[in-house]
Amino acid sequence: MINGKNAAQFSADQGIRFADVIDGQPEALRTLARRVGIDPGVLESSSFRRIDTWQFERNGITLPRHGVKSPVPRVCPACLREDALASDLPLQTAMAFRGNWQVAFLRTCNRHNLLLVPLWTDANRLDRHDFAARLGLHLDQVMTGDLDSAEFEPSDFGHWIEQRLSGQNDGACPSGTSQPAAGSAAVQQCSSFQYMVAYRKPRRPPVPIQIVSW
Predict the structure, then answer these.
(1) Which H helix or E strand runs over 67?
(2) Which of 48, 127, 132, 192 is most buried, by CB atoms within 10 Å?
């Protein structure tokens, strides 16, 4: 809650639709950034922008919707705790949700080497993305460290995709290929492979057929 209002109500007061903020629409992000006093460029570069029904884009990299819009938001409690300790703002306002936490096949925080923690889910996407309201239910656990997960070393791919999404790296995908990667196609190819590995469902073993003689 912000001044007693949820994210959708607060956005409406600023003359923008919360759905447009969730979808990373540039004008909505610029308006929001100006109203809360942050750099619009930073907000845009850290947000995924919907370009059609099935795809999102960030810093020139295009990814499928299922790869960046998980129905279960995950967080790094250590990052949130750092936000709070470095700010004089109320805890829920100081803590910032990172865009990379939305990427389904990224399972760890590369800064703290901790597994990301799933905290909630909601069929209503406006409620699901009301980060401050949802996080308010877990503030004590975040600050005490009770939500901290086990340490887990991020993969080379995890480091690479985060750098690519931040516009910091144009190198090859560390997936064993010797071909240089270039642009969205390379990221899609590597990330789609990682997504399938992470989320593939085990196939049911074939049921033996019994032949009965009469």
Answers:
(1) helix 65-68
(2) 48
Dump pLDDT digits (tens) for 129-139: 898 888 888 99
DSSP 8-53: HHHHHHTTS-HHHHHTT-HHHHHHHHHHHTS-HHHHHHTS-EE-SS
Burial of 95 (0-12, 13-18, 19+ CB in 10 A): buried
Q: Report strand pairing: 55-58 vs 49-50.
A: antiparallel
Q: Beta partners for 56?
A: 50, 63
Instruction: Report if residue 182 sits inside a domain.
Output: no
Minimal CA–CA distance to 190: which of 199, 181, 201? 181
Percentage with pLDDT > 90 across the chain = 35
Domain span at residue 24? 1-47
Within-domain flag for 200: no
Could you give the number of structural domains in the chain? 1
Q: What is the pTM of this model?
A: 0.75
In a domain, 108, yes or no: no
Within its chain, how far is the Cα of 49 from the centroid? Answer: 12
- Does a structural domain hold residue 72? no
